């Protein structure tokens, strides 16, 4: 992938920030309506530069815990997680902004979901700035419904279709490979789309693709919520949900580049770890009963299949 450089004046941090803050507010407003509870909004600043706005709900009617974060930070040197794939940028002054969300519903038949879009720029005294976009969304069900997985992936495909037919299959494969717990040889969920270090299009087109991903989130997720939120459940389903949430915690703390970037860059710990679920369980060498819905999820549903 060719490195894209351009004068600072060619991209507008003010415009990008305004879009991200508007996206956060649109999503939070829609989620508040779905849950029936207001999100707590918590503005924060970062001593090294920048700040953000965290929006959080806990013990809601729909969401046991959910957060939608906006951040805009800058610093004197890219942390290792941001320069791991671009070692030539190590030590450069940086500016980063994005919206990241994770929603953990109470009902085990409603899947957990994650979405993130972010923008980075790295600066040097003797070189033009380097920029790139990243983001995506992925779905983590506890009980598998093909209709839901197909809808989520179809919406992801629709978000990328205007920019070329190859982006969805490429970003879908990237998502399957990224959200994979290597130490367990196990996918986190049914995937979605994921991209990072994205600068292969001219900036206006790259930004439009990035915005399209953010703008399609509510259409990807809320119809699934409405189909499943009223399904009855009991302790068995809640117990399995807590067990599978343990995998979510393992991924976020061991592999997730966003979590690592936030912690390595001196970010706000409360906001970074807002993605973790409130109730989690681990068991030693446990396997679900053969032929059960729980076994069906693990043995055949979360396997990186083609949902289209």
UniProtKB/TrEMBL annotation:
Main location class = cytoplasm
Write out the GO cellular component annotations. cytoplasm
Signal sequence coordinates: none
Write down the required cofactor(s): a divalent metal cation
Q: Identify the residue position(s) of the site Important for dimerization.
A: 183
**Pathway as given in its UniProt record:** Porphyrin-containing compound metabolism; protoporphyrin-IX biosynthesis; protoporphyrinogen-IX from coproporphyrinogen-III (O2 route): step 1/1
For binding substrate, which residues are annotated in this chain's numbering? 100, 116-118, 266-268
Q: What is its EC number?
A: 1.3.3.3
Superkingdom classification of source: Bacteria
This entry's Gene Ontology molecular function terms read: coproporphyrinogen oxidase activity; metal ion binding; protein homodimerization activity
Q: What enzyme class is recorded for this protein? A: oxidoreductase
Q: Which GO terms describe its biological process?
A: protoporphyrinogen IX biosynthetic process
What are the catalytic residues? 114
Location relative to the cell: Cytoplasm
What's the subunit arrangement here?
A: Homodimer.
Q: Which family does it belong to?
A: Belongs to the aerobic coproporphyrinogen-III oxidase family.
| The protein's role, per its UniProt record | Involved in the heme biosynthesis. Catalyzes the aerobic oxidative decarboxylation of propionate groups of rings A and B of coproporphyrinogen-III to yield the vinyl groups in protoporphyrinogen-IX.
Q: What is this protein called?
A: Oxygen-dependent coproporphyrinogen-III oxidase
The record lists the organism as Ferrovum myxofaciens
According to the entry, what is the taxonomic lineage of the organism?
Bacteria, Pseudomonadati, Pseudomonadota, Betaproteobacteria, Ferrovales
